[in-house]
Predict the 3D structure of the following.
Amino acid sequence: MAVAGPRLLVTGFGPFPGAPRNPTEILVHGLAGEAPEAFGAGALKTAVLPTDYRRSWRMLRRLYAGFAPDIVVHFGVSQKLKAIHVERVARNAANPARPDAAGYVPPSARARRSGPEVLLSTLPVSAVHAALAEAGFPAVLSDDAGAYVCNATLYRSLAANAAPRIGFIHVPPIGRRGMTQTDVFEAACVALRAATLSRDAGP
């Protein structure tokens, strides 16, 4: 019998230029085998999104319509990081000089054709950050989710009001500052429990 609790959707990304092996894809495949109650959830769904502005959003819209999540946590990797970044902000911007895995960039240089310049994560980011730090993981609160597919995914999810709690967590590449794939998995579990179980109403 399923445990009563929120419906949790967790996504990662496939490869993209500069990251032929994305640790968040491996992460999501691992999380798919976990029981939802391990995170305080009543139902758990995982998905690997293509690092593609157009295809990823089409896939997400189908997931939102079919699963109706209460909590959405997107994971992505940034080659520049030395710590886990819990993102607080999404911007309506897309870097025109950085094509996605399909070679596409939004011609408008925006994540979405219309909308405010900035949207704030509705995940309890302070609680997630505190839980990661208490567990011994290098983690920071970030106000810059980049201007690539990761940022666009967070922005679009927030703009669509896809769930009451929506957020994004960037992880560093495997091997940076000693983080292994196992570390990424364990850190993600800590973050997901905090995102689900925190009583905080917002950031």
